[in-house]
């Protein structure tokens, strides 16, 4: 956990961006407080209302944000070339609706009790994972899905954890999200600028590590390899292998899917992945990517297709998002 100065306890790294500031009470943040109040109230709304309202918000985002809509369209055309244009258009619509529902369910992660979460989530492999965490070192891999915050919330209950957190552009939201991630569970959060050493130390001390390593960080020499994802090569950093090797940790993956018809989640965590040894980063990432792809295929609209996953090309060629989405 972190103390009031923002320093991570136990010397596991800094968390200076995750402290309360009196300026958060000023007019600049009143709009953010209002949005947070709405999220809290929606925790008590019927699930059908939340699902319908979330879909409407997602529709508005799709209509109004051409840049993100175009990124989704490029990603889906690359990953699902056998789909008809109308099928991909439908998947685009469903993705933004899933995104809107995920935003509204942030309140569950920020303030929901363990009982509340367990009443909304069906667990697959959770008990086996909890037992694994109790006896071995574990690195748990998740990717950026519309459901990722709820996944993090429930899996952090399976044992003491350590996770990296990327500061959000809005400092108030950074503090609120960090506070929400810690209020139910024994979890240490470290910021990215602290590097991977705090994460490794945390795993060695008996905490399960939690990592989201699917972003495209560009070409970074030996720290990036290209592996297929839905048949398209993408750049992934080799940090899972380096962390697993340094911490002598087993590697598993996890994901959740939201059933919009019922408002319930299904959270799945796999057994430790065979073939992920930490010795061969490319082989490790191929196994991890394949396992995550299988989980994503259960609800493909719930992967965050608004990210430029294929920005860096293995041949050094032009990004498929350029020039329309160069920003």
Distance between the ends: 36 Å
Radius of gyration: 19 Å
Strand line-up across the major sheet: 1-9-8-2-5-3-4
Sequence of secondary-structure elements: HHHHHHEHEHEHEHEEEHEEH
Largest pleated sheet: 7 strands, mixed
Structural class: alpha/beta
**Overall pLDDT, averaged?**
89
The helicity comes to 40-55%
Overall strand count: 9
Low-confidence regions: 1-14
What percent of residues are in strands?
A: 15-25%
SSE diagram, text form:
Elements: H1 30-42, H2 47-64, H3 66-79, H4 85-104, H5 106-111, H6 114-120, E1 121-124, H7 126-135, E2 138-141, H8 148-155, E3 161-165, H9 171-182, E4 187-191, H10 197-204, E5 208-211, E6 224-229, E7 232-237, H11 239-247, E8 250-259, E9 264-269, H12 281-296
Parallel strand pairs: 1-9, 2-5, 2-8, 3-4, 3-5
Antiparallel strand pairs: 6-7, 8-9
Give a concise summary.
The chain is of the alpha/beta class and 327 residues long. The protein is built from twelve helices and nine strands. Helix content is 43%, strand content 15%.
List keywords for this structure.
disordered N terminus; globular; seven-stranded mixed sheet; two-stranded antiparallel ribbon; alpha/beta; 9 strands; 327 residues
Account of the 3D structure:
With 327 residues, the chain is an alpha/beta fold. The protein contains 12 helices and 9 strands. It has helices at residues 30-42, 47-64, 66-79, 85-104, 106-111, 114-120, 126-135, 148-155, 171-182, 197-204, 239-247, 281-296, and strands spanning 121-124, 138-141, 161-165, 187-191, 208-211, 224-229, 232-237, 250-259, 264-269. Helix 3 (66-79) packs across helix 4 and helix 10 (197-204) packs parallel to helix 11 (239-247). It is globular, with a radius of gyration of 19 Å. It starts with 29 loop residues before the first helix and ends in a 31-residue tail after the last helix.
């Amino acid at each position: 956990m972190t103390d009031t100065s923002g320093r991570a306890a136990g010397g596991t790294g800094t968390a200076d961006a995750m402290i309360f500031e009196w300026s958060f009470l000023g007019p600049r943040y009143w709009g953010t407080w209002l949005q947070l109040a709405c999220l809290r109230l929606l925790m008590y709304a019927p699930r059908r209302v939340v699902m319908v309202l979330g879909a409407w918000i997602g529709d508005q985002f799709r209509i109004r944000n051409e840049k993100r809509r175009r990124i989704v369209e490029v990603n889906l055309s690359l990953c699902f070339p056998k789909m008809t244009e109308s099928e991909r258009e439908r998947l685009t619509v469903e993705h933004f609706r899933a995104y809107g529902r995920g935003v509204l369910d942030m309140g569950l992660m920020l303030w929901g009790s363990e009982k509340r979460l367990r009443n909304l989530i069906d667990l697959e492999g959770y008990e086996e994972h909890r037992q694994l965490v109790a006896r071995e070192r574990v690195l748990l891999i998740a990717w950026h899905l519309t459901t990722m915050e709820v996944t993090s919330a429930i899996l952090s209950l399976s044992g003491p954890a350590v996770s990296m957190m990327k500061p959000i552009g809005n400092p108030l939201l950074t503090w609120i999200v960090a506070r929400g991630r810690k209020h139910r569970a024994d979890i240490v959060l470290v910021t990215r600028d602290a590097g991977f050493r705090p994460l490794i130390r945390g795993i060695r001390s008996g905490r399960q590590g939690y990592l989201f390593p699917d972003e495209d960080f560009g070409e970074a020499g030996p720290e990036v390899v290209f592996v297929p994802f839905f048949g398209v090569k993408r750049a992934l950093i080799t940090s899972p292998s380096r962390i697993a090797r340094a911490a002598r940790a087993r590697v598993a993956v996890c994901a959740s899917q939201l059933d919009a018809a019922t408002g319930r989640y299904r959270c799945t965590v796999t057994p430790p992945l065979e073939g992920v040894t930490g010795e061969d980063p490319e082989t490790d990432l191929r196994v991890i990517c394949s396992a995550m792809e299988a989980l994503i295929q259960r609800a493909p609209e719930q992967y965050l297709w608004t990210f430029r996953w294929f920005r860096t090309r293995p041949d050094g060629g032009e990004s498929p998002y350029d020039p329309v989405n160069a920003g």
